[in-house]
């Protein structure tokens, strides 16, 4: 009964989104403001309606309503309550509803802003947001109903899910559910998908404004000014979702790494790439009135990659640990992506003339030229990723040959592009908007370059002779030095002009230009992450072997002694096999680690949880690979030494600080930027 | 306490060392490849994983064979161990897996060129378009410089001193825009 109520509200919400979308454009075309207002209120209603739907689903999940197919598939009686709640996004139907629910939150929020200055955008923003929502809610209503119940045919005894009770059948209530995929029973999974989805759905808003700008013909940079903070928050959520996914993989998947170039990881990475390119390239439009077509195209690509990414994860077209099942929704997703992409590009072509640049590029070394090169790198990485993901499909389609595109391809193809991006990250902050010459740039750059070279030589003499690592560490040092130099330069200027002490100067400098200095903190955090990535990618050491009790093995300067092992029942319906190993470095005792294997009875699946010890220098990461109680040959362990990996996680925390600074709402009204470029005057780097 | 296995260091070597190592391995492979394990020495887990790492689990896609926890993969790793004991080389073992489970067990497509050509072509195309864009954008500036040069020449010819209005960049720009509109 209550499941039917959930389905009923879901269907009503679907109709409300359709009404809202069409009332908005009807009201706009017939100039009936009341109709547009009605559409706005309808969009505002979607969030309460979907919250009610979600509450019903959570009620069913928490109270073991195994007559509901979705509940039966993702929960079991032994699961703790918090996991029953997070099981909401642990399966196909629920995760689509979760997507819509988050989207409706943003849609409802956007209706509440002041529209006085941008009234003409409103109907079109409503139209785009509601069409996107109706597509996702429609998926739930027509194909992936989370409230479908299991019915048993009284003649054939066959059990099948149905939205409505078929004739000659009775409701079937399973005694217990199948339980959530053990990989998803982790605190990281409580935050990772919501963050990623928040990133996905919040990119819909800048897209909606871009489309509104194209349709209304108001193609100045107003839409960018309105949505840049949305885009920054979207980028925050998406970035943090990716980092959390990496940490979850490191802690749970037991392969000793954080990123495996899995197609589904790449699906989430692709909109991040275009989103990052967008965040850089909108600055060119704001400062110089250029690249209007390109910015439109980037936000359209980001939106469609979000939908494409959701399609890859939901449709099961690419089998991976993330894809839940084969599904009929694939072609519909592809249709939606194609339609929105073609429609949006057609709009750009229609408005081509009004999107022409207001100024010209004056120097190949200017900030805008370097930003364009940065965009080229991001888009090239996107092409590598996109091609890598679809190549197996193309190969199978045209040659019938199934192939795998694994990490070696991505690492080789993206490595030089990431290095070029780092170089640009170092040079661009020193170049000026409008005009830079080799001489002006050289004068700013030589000091950080010399210090970076000295640091690299020191690393060569003390740490490694690996060429790739030396190039990487040089670039990291260069970018960090340039960024700190920029901070020092700004703070020094304030100290002189405002008579402030260094700390007040740094504080005020950041507070006065949050986006710029928040951006620099993000650059610094990226470099800390790069240290971690270089460490684990180039210097990871691993070994595997079977040890008897009290037997020792050594790896990367660590000695590991196998002490004990035990098997016992754990909470959440699992059997835990836990080993105890002691770790020494030389004669120094560092402590015990407890690698374990958890076997989940309901899902009939094992999880290998590592024992880890982390320092800034390296991580020792021990996995229990195998242990048979009847066997006398001991237990098999796999040990990884992951140098510098903690810098990756530290970098991600600093990243969070940087992006919150950059995206924090301004108290004062937006300053009006006068484009100095209109007078072709040379502008300084400190804009 | 005995040390029973040794760490495998991924990359703390220079290119020169790498080249020497490849040459040595090649020569060693030619001479003793089929003898090492034929004498009954059991290959270590690290030697098995070195090959398993380059193969993908034929069942659970996107999972390298060396870390896949399923029973099937454990059996495949045992198969690699057995083949190593029989004296099979790395290439032979990989070939065996490709023949039995298809080329998708390799972590890269057999024909690598096809995989790399599209991203490289896209990058070159992007770079070319950007280069053309830069040229197109720089044209108006070239026009402006030519205008200023002409103004200077006029000044010299007429014996005028000081800055001609056309030498002022703002006025030059204005003149240029007026010309476009006229």
List keywords for this structure.
A: alpha+beta; six-stranded antiparallel sheet; 13% strand; B: 182 residues; mainly alpha; Helicase, Ruva Protein, domain 3; 1% strand
Biggest β-sheet of chain A, characterized? 6 strands, antiparallel
Oligomer: heterodimer
Mean pLDDT of chain A: 87
Tell me the structural class of chain B. Answer: mainly alpha
Q: End-to-end distance of chain B, in Å?
A: 93 Å
Instruction: Tell how many strands the DSSP assignment of chain A holds.
Output: 13
Shape of chain B: rod-shaped
Instruction: Give the DSSP E fraction of chain B (strand runs of 2 or more residues).
Output: under 5%
Q: What is the overall shape of chain A?
A: flat
Please state the second-level CATH architecture of the largest domain in chain B. Orthogonal Bundle
Biggest interface, residues from each chain: A-B, 73 and 59 residues
Secondary structure class of chain A reads alpha+beta
Q: Helix count of chain A, per DSSP?
A: 19
- Top-tier CATH class of the largest domain in chain B: Mainly Alpha
**Tally of individual helices of chain B:** 6
Mean pLDDT across all residues of chain B, rounded?
69
CATH topology of the largest domain in chain B: Helicase, Ruva Protein, domain 3
Structure description:
The complex is a heterodimer of chains A (687) and B (182). Chain A has 687 residues and is an alpha+beta fold. Among the domains of chain A are: 1-180, no CATH class; 407-539 and 651-679, no CATH class; 541-646. Helix content of chain A is 60%, strand content 13%. Chain A has helices at residues 2-29, 33-62, 69-74, 81-86, 92-111, 122-143, 187-202, 204-216, 222-253, 263-288, 292-315, 330-350, 367-399, 407-427, 438-462, 467-498, 502-512, 514-539, 646-663; strands spanning 149-153, 159-162, 169-171, 541-547, 552-555, 558-570, 574-585, 588-593, 596-600, 605-609, 611-614, 618-626, 635-643. In chain A, strands 5, 6, 7, 8, 9 and 10 form a 6-stranded antiparallel sheet that branches. Residues 320-325 and 668-687 of chain A have low confidence and may be disordered. Chain B is mostly helical. Chain B has 2 domains: 15-110, Helicase, Ruva Protein, domain 3; 113-181. Helices cover 62% and strands 1% of the residues of chain B. The N and C termini of chain B lie far apart (93 Å). The model of chain B is unreliable at 1-19, 21-39 and 161-168 (pLDDT under 50). Classes of the chains: A alpha+beta (687), B mainly alpha (182). Chains A and B meet through helix 13, helix 14, helix 16, strand 4 and strand 5 of A and strand 1, helix 2, helix 5 and helix 6 of B.
